[in-house]
Amino acid sequence: MEGNEMSVTFENLVFNRSSGLGGGRMACTLVTGFLGSGKTTLLRHVLDNRGDLRIAVLVNEFADSDVDSLLLDSTRINSAFNLSTVALTHGCACCDVKGPFREALQRIVDSKHNFDCLLIETSGLAQPDKFVPQLEEVGMHLDLIITVVDAESLHKIININLVKKQLEHVDLVLLNKCDLATLGQISDAEDILEKLTGCAKVVRSQFCKVPLDLVIDCSKIEALSLPEEGNNVLPILSHEALPKMKFQRNVFDNASVAVSALNDTGNQSSVSSDQSNTKNSGTGLSQGESFSSVTFQSEVPLSLAVFQSEILPRMSNSCGLLRAKGIIWFAEDRGTRFVFQWSWAKRVEAISGKPWDNVPKSCLVLIGIDKPELEDILLCLSRSTNHPPIISSDGGLAKEYARQFIKLISADGRFKEPSLEKEPLVIFGVKGSPYVE
Ligand SMILES: Nc1nc2c(ncn2[C@@H]2O[C@H](COP(=O)(O)OP(=O)(O)OP(=O)(O)O)[C@@H](O)[C@H]2O)c(=O)[nH]1
Hints:
Bound molecules: guanosine-5'-triphosphate
Strand order of the largest sheet: 6-5-4-1-3-2-7
CATH class of the largest domain: Alpha Beta
Order of helices and strands: HEHEHHHEHEHHEHEHEEEEHEEEEHH
Shape: elongated
Distance between the termini: 60 Å
CATH topology of the largest domain: Rossmann fold
CATH architecture of the largest domain: 3-Layer(aba) Sandwich
């Protein structure tokens, strides 16, 4: 199915809506699922195809940097609403019941933008039931709990308590990444899900492309007149937006207190880390395993060569890394914003995206079960921002760069033959230019 296809029912609801929200409670859809299963992909699909629906989005991330907001491209979505992004300014969404998450919910309820519904993406390590009381408190109606599942990997993670919990109270399971799974794996996964969830609906998907009325409640929507824009409205919120704050987490049943911290390094790149203990069992994650996250941020570009030759192999060889995601600025292609994704199934994706619309900066989150290993990768990342000096003492490296550059422009008919006489300096000019002899 194509991403922009909407079901007839949904179209009717959107285009013929005449009665609805009124005094009723705002409907909320909670999206949950293990690390890397496709939750953000689902949100992006809904937002890209929302028509004129006003959908508020809250993102709750295990790590403490604003990566999911970056990946969701909230600036673009917000400008479609003609709204500014407002960051949560205190605490962590799912742990601090009376804190910023509750505040954000309240602001969405009170918003004069009259949002049609709210989508909450929970962290890949969160339990959905933790969110329910807070929604009730602000008078929201939890309409649907969706769990996104990686069809190919379900059998490997199904013994993890957290994964079972995420499937406990679910209304709809999106059996995602069906393009990567065999038919056998898909039907095995469906058997597992039937046993675990009982009557929950299971829908196969690729990149979460499902009709929108499956995942959001369109039934109570009324025709909207656009209210005046205000500065304080928040269609996309992410508690990750404040990486420098310290907070406590309590994501898991019996667990866990974690404190985030931020350290600065000398080269304008920074790292932060936090840790949560949980009790899990299953492939790769044993009882008493502890989840950690570290964040790499840098205003200095990374070397693509080092990234490819050192960092990717290190990530692939790591047993403790479960997930990496973020935006990367590479020295070799400074104009392009790369979106990087790495899942624990060792799938790597680096998409060369649009040009930067703000100051270029890398922001990469690593989540895993072996903190020293994560920190080791972090160190490599930090080192990859230390590019070799252009002029070395013997000029050797610079000569090499000069030779490569000469090769490049010699092949381009628009340039005059470059001069090699003053190596490592290259003298060249555009053909017909009066400025260069
Ligand atoms: N091949 C394939 N890749 C997919 C599919 N759905 C999502 N992905 C990719 O899987 C990676 C992870 O997707 P996300 O949507 O970021 O996963 P997530 O659940 O939000 O991840 P966390 O928030 O870190 O837990 C990205 O590279 C997606 O492009 C799918 O159906 N097929």
